[in-house]
Amino acid sequence: MANVTYDEIFGAVLTLPPLYRAMLAEHLLKSLDEINPQVETAWETEIANRIQAIQEGEVALIPADEVLQRLRNR
User: Using one digit for the tens of pLDDT, what is the confidence trace for 35-62?
Assistant: First the structure.
């Protein structure tokens, strides 16, 4: 494998079906990130809190098309 070039690998990857390319991309991105357990726990807590706030009606959700229209109107 040491003699295989980037271009050869990239070319081979492009022949894969989209699902497999996406899976490979996800694995490659994960390999770049060092997981900090404290940060991971903090995000899990934040996500749970946001879900709870939505379910309890504490926050109003705005449809994506409305948000995009607001941005276009700026």
Answer: 788 988 999 999 999 999 999 999 999 9
Nearest C-alpha neighbor of 72 from the set 64, 1, 34, 55? 64
Q: What is the pLDDT of residues 8-30, one digit of tens each?
A: 999 999 999 999 999 999 999 88
Sequence-distant (≥ 6) Cβ neighbours of residue 54 within 8 angstroms: 61
Nearest alpha-carbon partner for 27 in 43, 16, 37, 39: 16
Please, are residues 40 and 47 in contact by the beta-carbon 8 Å criterion?
Answer: no
Q: How far apart are CA 69 and CA 74, in angstroms?
A: 9
Are 24 and 13 in contact, with CB atoms under 8 Å apart? yes
Amino acid (one-letter) located at 65: D
Token code pair at residue 5: 């070039």
